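Notes to self, THIF-type NAD/FAD binding fold domain-containing protein:
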Amino acid sequence: MDYGVRKLTVVDSGSVGMSNLARQSLYTFGDRDVPKATAIFTHLKERCSSVEAEGVQMEIPMPGHPVSSKEAAGVLDNCKRLQKLVATHDAVFLLTDTRESRWLPTLLCANENKIAITAALGFDSYLAMRHGAGPGTNSKSPNVVAATTRLSAEDVLGRQRLGCYFCNDVITPVDSVSNRTLDQQCTVTRPGLASIASGYAADLFARILNHPDG
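result:
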């Protein structure tokens, strides 16, 4: 908000837990068990009265996490909602807990040529990076198009494209959270890095906006 951002949308499927209070400084003890996407509003207003925030409580569909036939319609609806959110925003920050949860938002940001920034924590490192632009201009189609004819090493201006969070992967993302104990989740075991990585991500966003090439 110090960089002048006044409109933002928070997407989250969970509720505030005790482990969130120490590492996610906007939440307080009184927010426990309240959906994260809505609990954040009051605290944002306390810090900046002019901010306009919206909360969306939904699960991001993830590769490696199979769904039943009963859940298929709901998952498809979440895909459409997420696509609409990406299309109607200027920038997307991927601050999710797992690698696979970043895959669909990354794909949608590339399709819509949106600014995408990832902040991620590991046991021995952390990452704050911007994703490269999509393979072409902003698609006017309501559907995501994935075809080899659209893939190119250059952007629409003829410059070399930057990679994304998944460009060096040799396999598709898989389920990385099942049967993992709380102490094996990096966002919990390294709480001090959360503010550092997110701070770098916000500064990276400001630098992109002020760079002549964007």
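- Residues 191-210 form the longest helix (20 residues).
- The chain is about 35% helix and 15% strand.
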